[in-house]
Amino acid sequence: MSLLPSLLLVLALVALPGAQGACPVPADLKHDDGTRTCAKLYDKNDPYYDNCCKGAELSVEPGADLPFLPSNWANTASSLVVAPRCELTVWSRAGKAGKTRKFTSGSYPRLEEFRRGIFGHWANAISALYCRCY
């Protein structure tokens, strides 16, 4: 059996865009002084993963408890990244009301892929959040 088909398969898999897209690696969520950031939210929404995690960004510090997001960020986030050993809890309504979801460490380039109830998704639906690191 020839190795050529196996090598071509491996090359094809490497060439495909990953689920991470342009999002930063979770371990890279740090300030210049070495202190870490709990999570970052991005407002760029695109069907191509390489165009996600761009645009305006909101850095969330460990222990941040925001029952009301800044007015320009309410229902705006479409991508997010959570640092290692951290957890981001989000709500669909201000005041920590409505649907809720927990995002653990990782990159989430398209929040449209995460269901919020039967008919909704989490893109442009985050109105409150709490981020903790352990």
UniProtKB/TrEMBL annotation:
GO biological process terms on file: exocytosis
Main location: other
Pfam families reported in the protein's UniProt record: Syncollin
Record's subcellular location: Zymogen granule lumen; Zymogen granule membrane
Annotated GO CC locations: zymogen granule membrane
Name this protein carries in UniProt: Syncollin
InterPro entries: Syncollin
Organism: Sciurus vulgaris (Eurasian red squirrel)
Sorted UniProt keywords: Cytoplasmic vesicle, Disulfide bond, Exocytosis, Membrane, Signal
Function: Functions in exocytosis in pancreatic acinar cells regulating the fusion of zymogen granules with each other. May have a pore-forming activity on membranes and regulate exocytosis in other exocrine tissues.
Keyword presence, Signal: yes
Designated gene of the protein: SYCN
Keyword set includes Repeat: no
